[in-house]
Amino acid sequence: MEDKQQLSGPNRNLAGNIREQASAIFREVVSIRRHLHQHPELSFHEYQTSNFAAEKLREYGIGYKQVAGTGILAMITGKKGKSSRSIALRAELDALPVNEETGLTFKSVNPGVMHACGHDVHTACLLGSAKIIKSLENEFAGSVYLIFQPGEETLPGGAKKMLNENLFAGKEPDLILAQHVLPELNSGEIGVRPGMYMASGDEIYIVVTGEGGHAAMPHTITDTVAAMSQIIVSLQQVTSRFAPPQIPTVLSFGKFTANGATNVIPREVVIEGTFRTMDETWRAKAHEVITSIATSTASGFGAACSVEIRKGYPVLVNDPEKTGLIRKLAGEFIGAGNVKELPLRMTCEDFAWFAGKYPSVFYRLGSGCQDKKLHSPEFDIDEKTMETGIALPAWFALSFLTRSPLVI
What we know:
By secondary structure, the protein is of the alpha/beta class. The protein is built from 10 helices and 16 strands.
């Protein structure tokens, strides 16, 4: 990590101090990550994970409170005078229902549960950043919030639950940052994108029912399987004919359950899927279109149909001005050439709940293993990237609190 842009004396000293400390605690943070990776827990059941993070915060002398069950909010207040300025840094605690196939010596000991999205990395890096920020509390004024969030992978999302519990108790942050690994970026790189970045995400559950029976006598029954198959085909019109062409839209079904047999048409068939888009007005309209197409198609087969759409996370929008600031600060610390522009992404993130309420930036940390895809059983990172992941949040937070005015 080398300066590629000229820094003034105080800023250069701060950058050097953070780099030195990140290097010194690197092995400690890697050990934290490996412990978390080996003991993953599913959304809203992160009891051991939360206790482990809390134990580290106590060890570092950082006060905290429990929020939303297994969530944690910690705060470090600078001692260099008084300031109302504050910044929050967020990491997630939960893992995914994935059976790990990495072969790592520290692979998951919990069958069917894995940190396949890098949340172990995010939590470990934030703990490392917290240790650095705490050591420099005499060098800044203002406050740094540390959000250890539960349940990012499951609706309604831990971010929403934390906010519903009055997370900041009226002392609102001026900026919230979230750091998330990305295999498409190399170790030592980060990615940013101002404005819209990630899609909204809704879960769709469609049930078709009718009088099932012998498959050899289709004229005497309701063919629920054929009805549901046609529903899936007909619903492709949502993206090809109903969606405004300028609005990114995805409708996919990943689960089809027809519990019949070679010669039995079941009474009930169920499909489950996801709807993603980048526009809230079209999102609401699409829900109506999906319901209309499914029910009318089923009716044509003489079947009944119920449609449940569970509204999930909103579109994630990065504050344009604050994203410009983060791009500038990152360029100073890791070099402008290592700060990449991100494309739109149709995955979704419950950090969008924070971004809808506060100026926020969700940025990507290169994980250095392009063949280890997120949410896959083989997912892993180049642990060298964690030195950047430890240092950058501390640099962003302390630069935000110590520079006046903040100039982009």
